UniProtKB/TrEMBL annotation:
The gene is ku. Keywords: DNA damage, DNA recombination, DNA repair, DNA-binding. CDD domains: KU_like. SMART domains: Ku78 (SM00559). Homodimer. Interacts with LigD. This is Non-homologous end joining protein Ku. One of its GO terms (biological process) is double-strand break repair via nonhomologous end joining. Residues 255-301 are annotated as: Disordered. It comes from Shinella kummerowiae. One of its GO terms (molecular function) is double-stranded DNA binding. Pfam families: Ku (PF02735). Belongs to the prokaryotic Ku family. Residues 283-295 have a biased composition (Low complexity).
């Protein structure tokens, strides 16, 4: 991938066939607005220091190590080199262990997606054979390897001209849905209330288009930064009114009345998407070059 650096390079193996592949990050948070912790009195950035919980003294980096708590306040010290030695050795090979139906893996197990591409022309033929065979068979592949110092299970799926490799959470890392939903009361909605809800769903049916959805948090933060730079009052949040059981039927009737028969699924054009990105970029640029009046006064003081 031109202009991008592979996060990992190795091989993918199926049967006795192998080819060189690279993993490239499919999702990035680098465009998000980030904040630093600032001293209110001076306007200076605050640095993080590590303090001994008993003596209250600062602990220098060379005096820090890892520890596992065996009892309250008692630890076994483990050197970082011991941790590194315990990590399974990597042979840089994504070994496919099974091909499964694409729908077999619950997406609650999905962790991070990566684009998987051949690293050279020699590997392209074997890569393409695997991709096309998986696509025709409508299967995904389950593979395992050491990624980023951890043994990871990876789900590999076809995606356009390439493959997507998604790291999977282990079973012990995924919390039980039964416990999460345990306190939801057992209710049955029927009659007009159910019919109205189904009508609203039918009217609002559409297709998933990622470009149609704004990152409203980022845009709100960008507007807040811009307002603070310009000395304006920050935007206020609009309170959400929760529909109470007694008002639910009336709210459903009102919703059905307001909906039109034509498709009114929210859409955002490329121009609007670029406009949103422009607002964030402008806010970041302004924030990097301009201090608020209050910060300037503190610096002067």
């Amino acid at each position: 991938m031109a202009g991008h650096r592979a996060q990992w390079k190795g091989f993918i193996k199926f049967g006795e066939v192998s080819c060189g592949v690279g993993l490239y990050t499919a999702a990035s948070t680098s465009e998000r607005i980030s904040f630093h912790t600032i001293n209110k009195l001076t306007g200076n950035r605050v640095n993080r220091v590590f303090i001994d919980s008993d003596t209250g003294k600062e602990v220098e980096r060379e005096d820090q190590t890892k520890g596992f708590e065996i009892e309250n306040g008692q630890y076994i010290m483990i050197d970082p080199e011991e941790v590194a030695a315990a990590i399974p050795e990597s042979n840089k090979t994504l070994t496919i262990e099974a091909f499964i139906p694409c729908s077999d893996v619950d997406d609650v197990y999905f962790d991070k997606p990566y684009y998987l591409v051949p690293t050279d022309r020699v590997s392209s033929d074997a890569f393409t054979a695997l991709r096309d065979a998986m696509d025709k068979s409508m299967v995904a592949a389950v593979a395992r390897t050491v990624l980023f110092r951890r043994m990871r299970t990876v789900l590999i799926r076809t995606h356009g001209k390439g493959l997507i490799a998604t790291t999977l959470q282990y079973d012990y890392e995924v919390r039980s849905s039964e416990k999460a939903f345990d306190e939801i009361p057992k209710l049955r909605i029927k009659g007009e209330m159910l019919d109205l809800a189904k009508h609203i769903i039918a009217t609002k049916k559409g297709t998933f288009d990622p470009a149609a959805f704004d990152d409203r948090y980022e845009e709100a933060v960008a507007e807040l930064v811009k307002a603070k730079i310009e000395g304006k009052a920050p935007p206020k949040r609009t309170a959400v009114k929760v529909s109470k059981p007694d008002d639910l039927l009336a709210a459903l009737r009102e919703s059905a009345k307001m909906l039109k028969s034509d498709d009114d699924t929210p859409k955002r054009s490329a121009a609007n998407a670029n406009k949103g990105a422009g607002r964030k970029a402008a806010a970041r640029a302004a924030a990097s070059k301009t201090r608020s009046p209050a910060a300037a006064e503190r610096k002067a003081g």
